[in-house]
Amino acid sequence: MATTIFTIANQKGGVGKTTTAVNLAAGLAQRKIHTLLIDLDPQANATSSLGIEKKEGRSLYSALRGEGEALPLVVPTAHEHLALIPSEEDLAAAEIELSQMENYLMKLRGVLEPVVASGGFRAIIIDCPPALGLLSMNSLAAADYLLITLQCEYMALEGLGQILRNVERLKSAGINPGLELGGIVMTMFDIRTSLSRQVVDEVRTHMPDKIFTSVIPRTIRLSEAPGFGKTIFAYDPLNPGSTAYGNLAAEVIARFGLC
User: Fold this and answer.
1) pLDDT tens sequence across 91-125
2) pLDDT tens figures, 190-202
3) Rounded to an integer, what distance in angstroms lies between the CA atom of residue 64 and that of residue 105?
4) What are phi and psi of 220, to 5 degrees?
5) pTM beyond 0.85, yes or no
6) CA-based nearest residue to 47, from 78, 80, 81
7) What's the rounded Cα separation, in Å, for the pair 230 and 225?
8) Number of H-type helices and E-type strands within the chain
9) If you classify domain 4-256 with CATH, what class do you get?
């Protein structure tokens, strides 16, 4: 079956982007979907969230410079059916160096072509930096679908239009005409506040076909798990966050025909 590439992007930090990338990838793997998580954030939070040590030379930095390939960088994780391309600090230099290259927005797509051609993965999930810089734009240029994490607060809604405008620019410029908004994941939902419900309702009213039914709750266990190098499924399988990400994985499989 063909490989589907998802990028999880948002120019705002602290909206559950990496938490969603890691736990969605793990949720897909639990359902026996061969999944590759690519950590494209120099902060390497997704890497450490899976208990993988950051090591020099293990990120996509050299590959993006045309000095190596991506497949040898793939490492197994503690989860069956889930592999990772880690990140480390050197990747930060790519933000500067990419701008000096020809076709600088297409570098990641070219790097991933052999990974896709290998047939080893049904889904690839890219975790981006919390900014719409060149690494994030490369991920959008390489992806089939954009998944947006949106925190359940009104300030979060302001950035939604900006990232959607960038999607349209990439499409209209012919860089990635097939890129689609795959869905919006509402995160940090607090059932005790009317604000959380109002934000979800507003997004559901304006983009009913894009918002996922599964809403990710605000729970301390989701915040704690990365510190132990574990997904929420391994850290606290009975937690509401585990249930929510399991349901989200099932939705993604159904929506994009991954089974």
Assistant:
1) 999 988 998 999 999 999 999 999 999 999 999 99
2) 877 888 888 888 8
3) 11
4) -65, -25
5) yes
6) 78
7) 5
8) 11, 7
9) alpha beta
